[in-house]
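User: I'm new to structure prediction. If I give you an amino acid sequence, what do you actually give back? Let's try with this one:
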Amino acid sequence: MESASRIDHNHQLSLREFPYIVRWRDDRCTRCGRCTAVCPVKAIAPSVQVRRVVRSEGPFPTPTAVRTVVHVVEQVNDMERYCTGCGTCSLVCPNEAIEPEYNPQNKFLHYKNKGGDGYKRGGRRNDPSLSTLDRLKFTRISMLTDPALDAGRHEFRIRSFLGRILPPEELPLVSSDGELLLDTKRKTFIPPVREIFPIMIGSMSIGALSPPMWEGLAMGVAYLNEVEGMPVVMCSGEGGMSPRLLRSKYLKYFIIQIASGYFGWDEIIHALPHMVEDPAAIEIKYGQGAKPGDGGLLMAQKVLKLIAKIRGVPQFVDLASPPTHQTKYSIEEAVAKMIQSMSMAWGFRVPVYPKISGSKTAKAVLNNLARNPYAAGLCIDGEDGGTGAAYNVSMDKMGHPIASNIRECYLDLVKQGKQNELPLIAAGGIGKRGNLAANAAALIMLGASAVAIGKYIMQAAADCFGDEYNRCNLCNTGKCPRGITTQDPKLYRRLDPDKVAERVVEVFKAADVELKKIFAPMGRSTELPIGMSDGLSIDDKAMAERLGISYAC
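Assistant: Good question. You get back a string of structure tokens that encode the predicted 3D arrangement of the chain. For your 553 residues, that looks like this:
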């Protein structure tokens, strides 16, 4: 028995192997139980300990040993209930008696593959190093050589276009008495184009996000358009949309996504005859930056009644999307079938474009799209692109950085003379360190017409705990302690959609001001400096050469 006990203890893990170690202060704790009640993964639990205390009292003290039973809060020594470092326990503790502390010497990944399945998580890439985007500087500052603008007084128009823009010679226009008029005799297909704010909210589905979070984002977008006059658009993500929203006038501010699982498309098709407005665009998802070559996954614990109804599936089943659309085997076929059929469904009034993962094959996709008149653009999702559930090996070891990927695609369009025709949308890691406007401006100057944000808006609008140190990252499990990525009413009731909407508005208004501050010294006010790479510099010669920008140190 004694030998078996030793063997059993030998196979236990010490807390030094865990990513976060919970520091608990006995002298401050009042044993109220709040911390153990709110921990989303049950990493801490109430327990009792027998303590031996040596006392020496009285006029002739003789040391005596006294054993007492005390109530404590212990960290669970079980890798299936590891502390994620979210810090929810610290928020509810009235006496600052408990706090998770990051353990840089952890061996977490060595032990999370039990059962023969790789570790899956939500969140973002665990890489705290400085990204290429955050190393870029804006060094073209007009002073006396060029007319600079006053960002505070000058009138700006920070707008971009979503949709294919025909070159001047292909436009069906005629000049008459100094006016440009539409030539009705020319049978030319005019692609639909939307004017949008150059920062858009990327694809996060109803299902991946909680109802209050999605509602808050939608209300914020509607307010920005209706009240502030900022044409911000938001992508639905895979999983459909609320039937009420599909039939409302606010649909024009949303991009509907169709992905390989086709979840939610029954509701969309049934709503087509009743739509009072066209959507801003249709996005066909072929890949995500966080897990290139892999499909989507909404885990069973998030498929509750509302999600099951919108998506047209049973409750409590994993919803896995295939890695690609199963009836398409090449980009040519995808363009011919998907883009044209979606364009036809809305009478060629809505821009339709694909979204792909950042990779070395992005240029091949772009070159095929450039030849097709119905393709409205291309969205490239870089390696830092968010996800609801992905294998850790995909998130941390696969993908292509967005800066160089968008740059080489833009330069490819330049060689074809089509850089002003097919818009590129960049996504993945934008605002990772909070520099939203700076990252967006840098990508625009590298060649993007617009950028899409996801994780940034979750952190800015709803105070997401996640970071690059594997903190929290419970997005896929339905246990989000903030109520952002869960379908559990006990958790998502913590989130106020009105406050989320308010923060969305504040974030975009602030980004608008900062973009003006960046573009004003470059003398740009009425059009975006798309591809204006001479305004950028970096302190690394290899990066400067790769991006085709100047080296400055």
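You can read the tokens as a compact description of the fold. Here is one thing that stands out. The chain has two domains: 10-53+63-117, 134-162+196-514+530-551.
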